[in-house]
Amino acid sequence: GAVVSQHPSWVICKSGTSVKIECRSLDFQATTMFWYRQFPKQSLMLMATSNEGSKATYEQGVEKDKFLINHASLTLSTLTVTSAHPEDSSFYICSAREDLPGYTFGSGTRLTVV
Amino acid sequence: QKEVEQNSGPLSVPEGAIASLNCTYSDRGSQSFFWYRQYSGKSPELIMFIYSNGDKEDGRFTAQLNKASQYVSLLIRDSQPSDSATYLCAVNPSGTYKYIFGTGTRLKVLA
After folding, report:
1. How far is CA A35 from its chain centroid?
2. pLDDT of B68-83, one tens digit each?
3. What's the pLDDT score for residue A97?
4. Are A101 and B34 an interchain contact pair (Cβ–Cβ within 8 Å)?
5. pLDDT over threshold 70, residue B106
6. Which residues pair with B48 in a beta bridge?
7. A86, B5, B30, B31: most buried, per Cβ within 10 A?
8. Which of A32, A42, A108 has its CB closest to that of B42?
9. CA nearest B59: which of B47, B51, B46, B50?
10. What are A71-104's pLDDT values in tens digits?
11. DSSP one-letter code for B111
């Protein structure tokens, strides 16, 4: 089945620094990937749609200058949290889809900003 | 606002019993429906998907869809402690490739 790899699995950073998260489709090409954020005991909230070769589409209320998305190849999308603050601490998950219905999720990245 | 509603639980069932998880959605034009399982601290994994009214069975899992009533359910037969997790309902509204997730139902299977 489709495998989506996400790195790092966890990261701790200082307030004001930037963090990059990578999402790779290992055995298939993904023209579209999605980035979600999940706070404790809450559901997944779609942040943005990452489109290979074009600009990402951000959901309402998500700051595109803070959450930079780059989808430079058919197997890699990156999310950079710029000038991170403690309120950005969350579980970030990417997803992509191969042929079968349903999106496959990466393993997630737990970001803690101190 | 297109919404997906789930009871947050926890839903506690004894081992071997049937667990019934429910989900309602607001967008009547939704076409695709998915159930994901999420263990604590992990990312969701797809269990079932259903497109047509009626039941769809896969092993111990049965997904049920009623578009007229706008609900989708997941039955887990012979529940095992390893089934203890949060179950997320996801709906693909009409005219979009996005998924809208419910808040999830936490299931506890008691040994």
Report:
1. 4
2. 999 999 999 999 999 9
3. 80
4. yes
5. yes
6. B35
7. B30
8. A108
9. B47
10. 989 999 999 999 999 999 999 999 998 776 788 9
11. -
